[in-house]
Amino acid sequence: KNEVEQSPQNLTAQEGEFITINCSYSVGISALHWLQQHPGGGIVSLFMLSSGKKKHGRLIATINIQEKHSSLHITASHPRDSAVYICAVKQTSGSRLTFGEGTQLTVNP
Amino acid sequence: ETGVTQTPRHLVMGMTNKKSLKCEQHLGHNAMYWYKQSAKKPLELMFVYNFKEQTENNSVPSRFSPECPNSSHLFLHLHTLQPEDSALYLCASSQAGLAGYTQETQYFGPGTRLLVL
Question: What is the mean pLDDT of the segment spanning A84-99?
């Protein structure tokens, strides 16, 4: 079992829909990252969280440390949001990032 | 554009070839990383350089050889690779404190898609 699990693995939505991607982890962490990977391969860091909630434009990320769970929400989704969204955690024991397998999001017009 | 560039973007090589991947960051960061991303698998950390010193080698086979001549450049030298080494190789950088690269956001390059025949 991976230390970082994401759900769903694949998600298809219609333009304008509200989208939620979930991340659960089984280790102690000091920070959690949400990353976006476009089809060309490049990865962009969206958020780094250690508690609470962060918002950037149409993207919202939340984390519940007690439940070891984080969610990434996209409001008013758009086809350009189509990408792989990756959750990564920075474990308290050690310094490397551990990555989830990613969620492939497709937003249709 | 994240400030991290990688060349080449695509590479096809035979198992007896020697090639190098290059990464350059224009962000003034002091930590650089090599990651491997295989199909349907999570990102795997390969190497970490902090202040030009290798601080982590994640049990990577010796056919992959990193080099960090300065804090802005990182190379991955490849020789006698296997077909299962075909993957997307991503470089990243971050600004790490003296205690390590713990919580800093990493900035990723576009990756080099490698095919080994």
Answer: 83
Please give the residue of chain B at the shortest CA–CA distance from A36. B108
Pick from A92, A107, A41: which is nearest to B43 by CA? Answer: A41
Whether residues A42 and B105 touch (CB distance < 8 A) is answered with: no
Please state the φ and ψ torsions of residue A80, each to the nearest 5 degrees.
-70, -10
Contact B68, B57 (CB under 8 A): no
From B102, which residue of chain A is nearest by alpha-carbon distance?
Answer: A95
Check pLDDT > 70 for residue A38. Answer: yes
The tokens for A106 are 């497709």
Count Cβ atoms within 10 A of the Cβ of residue A57 and give its class: 0-12 exposed, 13-18 middle, 19 or more buried. Answer: exposed
B42 contacts A101? CB cut-off 8 A: yes
